[in-house]
Amino acid sequence: MDDFGRLTRIIRRRWWALVVPALVFLLSALVPAIGAPPQYAVSRTILLTNRSPMNDTGDTLAYDFPAISRSAAYQTKVAALVGADMTAAAVAAALDVRNDNRAVTFTVSGSDPTTLVPIRDAAVAVLARDGTLLWGNTSGQTTVNIADLAHQDDPQRVAIWRDQLAAAVLRGLAGALLGLLVITIRGVEGADAHAHE
Fold it and tell me: Nearest 5 degrees, angle CA 179-CA 33-CA 152?
């Protein structure tokens, strides 16, 4: 209990050592968002099933596809289909694919709303065109069934401040913990120095 009281006294004297790192870490999360252009997003959800026996169900195909969508080969194919000087790196930055059983949701986000729908539709078109070739199946029927479940074509503004604020709070807490660690170490070193005198 005596150690806790001593730490409390040290913190009262050196409160700035908690506040300064917390503010620096907090601002490091918020400053990039201040000058960032607004972000927009479109999405499309499809149902994915296999037309041929491949020892894979639609569940397996949908489960594997998010990882396939992050491959450089797939992103290069999507960029080539979009054309207009689109790069695989731009596709990688904009495209996010998630699965829920046999449903696969393509979400494309970025600051230029005119490029979002073309990237999204090219991503689905590459899947429809290449089918199970994307999974490495080169024998037999490679076609997959794609059924549209939902799509949102109108680019919607993404609320980035909510995510940035959460990140800022976490960074602020990390800064305060770092400050507390420094205060604690210096307090222990100071106590040891007084003990040796």
Answer: 130
